[in-house]
Write a structure and sequence with these properties.
alpha+beta; Tumour Suppressor Smad4; 11-stranded antiparallel β-sheet
């Protein structure tokens, strides 16, 4: 028998589902579980992925939220059989290293994206370097983000960035409301690339850096690279796997 640990978002729907499922299947402590079952929406799934990142326990989500892109359909019967038959997707996060005006250095991991965003009424001015080569001397924009394949359908898609299949080993570098160069629409980078973003004129045009839910304000430089030493495993029903959903999203009208 598979030992399941159920975790739920803090709202009536997920909490009521948690109570029913624990009564039906029991619930192990996280340390003794074979699989973590997350009940909620994509926001709660992202929280759960960070919580169990690097602990070697696969996570199976069931949608009790709105969009549920990272979740499976909520059904209470046959859960153990669904988990045994599930497809697996391994995700590697981005590691952000941000330097602040005060001289501090802050690191954080992002499963979806790292974004740099203006803090004031004035647009940010950014210099972008990839693997030691300056690729964009100056970007004037509301910001810029670097998204993983799993995060390419989130903020990146809203900013008109490309959707990336999970196995592509690419990252999407996407501007947010670019003013100059006006025609630049971003770039696709190898997943092992190191991206350095310098904030020009940071006293007059302050910028914050966000790695998923972690925000660092008044940054002067941010370095982002994929952390291959950290990983998390997601489980998806065969007829609802993440690769198929990413592909399907590219043909959505």
């Amino acid at each position: 028998m598979t030992a399941l640990c159920f975790v739920a978002g803090r709202s009536d729907g997920p909490e009521q589902a948690l109570e029913r499922l624990e009564k039906k299947y029991g619930s192990a402590e996280p340390e003794g579980a074979d699989v973590i079952v997350a009940l909620g929406g994509d926001g709660f799934m992202l929280h759960t992925l960070h919580r169990f990142l690097g602990q070697g326990r696969p996570i199976y989500g069931m949608n009790q939220g709105t969009v549920g892109f990272l979740m499976n359909e909520y059904r209470e019967d046959g859960l153990e059989e669904r988990i045994v038959a599930a497809h697996r997707a391994v995700l590697h996060p981005l590691r952000m290293t941000a330097e602040t005006e005060g001289g501090g250095t802050i690191e954080s991991l992002a499963i979806n994206e790292v974004s740099l965003l203006r803090q004031s009424r004035q647009a940010a001015r950014l210099r972008i370097t990839v693997d030691g080569v300056v690729r964009l001397e100056e970007l004037t924009a509301d910001g810029v983000l670097l998204a993983t394949p799993a995060g390419s359908t989130a903020y990146n898609l809203s900013a008109h960035g490309p959707i990336i299949p999970l196995e592509a080993e690419l990252l999407a570098l996407t501007p947010v409301s670019a003013f100059r160069p006006r025609r630049w629409r971003g770039a696709l980078l190898p997943s092992r690339a190191t991206v350095r973003i310098e904030v020009l004129d940071h006293f007059k045009r302050p910028v914050s850096a966000v790695a998923d839910a972690t925000e660092v304000r008044d940054v002067v430089e941010v370095v982002v690279r994929e952390d291959r030493d950290a990983s998390v495993e997601l489980l998806f029903d065969p007829d609802h796997n993440l690769e198929e959903r990413v592909l399907r999203e590219q043909f959505a009208i």
